[in-house]
Structure to design on (245 residues):
């Protein structure tokens, strides 16, 4: 029986790259997306061409009811969740803290923190019943750097994910479930355009010791390693994939 991997935010960027590598590795895929159905369908088609099963699950992880409905649908279609790439996340327009609004902060934490925690919770419940599982929470090097004058709220939300990972990992370590955190550095994906700076990755390359941004595929390879049996004695850890930054 193929393992089932749930990827949140699977329609583009790191999520899409992870889905492609997972399909190549023989995972069946539960692909979550919020609004980019076309992107998700393209990833599912790629997976099907690689001979694995891929099902789409539309849900906004900022909405608890939609998370519940997604997991009920996954239960009906797959009957299990063996692995989770907890990847869905958002960034807002670059701004100083003095320009933040309550609505901006609420959306940021609803998606990046509360949504991620609730998705992990539902995955853990299923993994506990199975007696095994692996989770990778996608954070960011911004959790260390703070992203002053740009995305302090995003950085703070990712720092919360770092701490959540450590606590959850210790709770379930004796239940056959591993939980790790991956912190990408500056990566060349569309998230920068969503934050109003489409060329940000290349413009900041000089700040990276390796002098270039990472690719979604490089981040995905690290996610797949942490989910794999090659990382069987790794839990509660945070891995920076950041070109040395």
């Amino acid at each position: 029986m193929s393992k089932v991997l749930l990827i949140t935010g699977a329609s583009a960027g790191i999520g899409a790259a992870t889905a492609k590598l997972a399909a190549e590795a023989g995972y069946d895929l539960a692909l979550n997306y919020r609004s980019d159905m076309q992107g998700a369908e393209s990833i599912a088609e790629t997976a099907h061409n690689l001979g694995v099963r891929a099902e789409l699950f539309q849900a906004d992880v900022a909405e608890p009811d939609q998370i519940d409905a997604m997991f009920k649908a996954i239960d009906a279609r797959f009957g299990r969740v063996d692995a989770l790439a907890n990847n869905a996340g958002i960034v807002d327009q670059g701004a100083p803290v003095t320009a933040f609004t309550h609505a901006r902060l609420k959306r940021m934490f609803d998606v990046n923190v509360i949504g991620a925690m609730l998705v992990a919770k539902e995955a853990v419940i299923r993994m506990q019943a199975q007696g095994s599982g692996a989770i990778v929470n996608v954070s960011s090097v911004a959790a260390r750097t703070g992203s002053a004058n740009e995305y302090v709220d995003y950085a703070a939300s990712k720092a919360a994910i770092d701490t959540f990972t450590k606590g959850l990992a210790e709770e379930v370590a004796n239940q056959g479930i591993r939980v790790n955190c991956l912190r990408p550095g500056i990566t060349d994906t569309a998230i920068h355009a969503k934050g109003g700076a489409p060329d940000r990755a290349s413009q900041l390359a000089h700040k990276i010791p390796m002098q270039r941004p990472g690719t979604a595929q490089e981040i995905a390879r690290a996610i797949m390693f942490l989910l794999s049996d090659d990382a069987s004695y790794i839990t509660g850890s945070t891995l920076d994939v950041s070109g040395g930054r």
Observations:
- The longest helix spans residues 102-130.
- DSSP finds nine helices and seven strands in the chain.
- The mean pLDDT is 95.
